[in-house]
Backbone:
């Protein structure tokens, strides 16, 4: 149909735990509030965009290599967290 594929993604920075679960079919999993926040960034984002938390934006700016197209979107209501700056 020519409409193409449009993806959205979320990114958060902070502590997380990773583990291999299972023995017959092992799976690598991540756990923690950071993982949940990144998931919420994805689910509240727009197609074709990467939504990041304010803390992640600051880390990117401090690294000296911010995204060239980064812009503030303002406050987003995030389930389980309340309003967050993105």
Residues:
């Amino acid at each position: 149909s020519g409409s193409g594929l449009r993806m959205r993604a979320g990114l958060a920075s902070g502590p997380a735990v990773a583990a291999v679960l299972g023995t017959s079919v092992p799976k690598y999993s991540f756990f923690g509030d950071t993982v949940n926040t990144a998931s919420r960034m994805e689910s509240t984002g727009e197609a074709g965009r990467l939504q990041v938390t304010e803390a992640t934006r600051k880390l990117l700016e401090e690294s000296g290599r911010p995204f060239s197209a980064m812009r503030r979107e303002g406050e987003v209501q995030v389930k389980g967290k309340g309003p967050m700056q993105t």
Remarks:
- The radius of gyration is 15 Å.
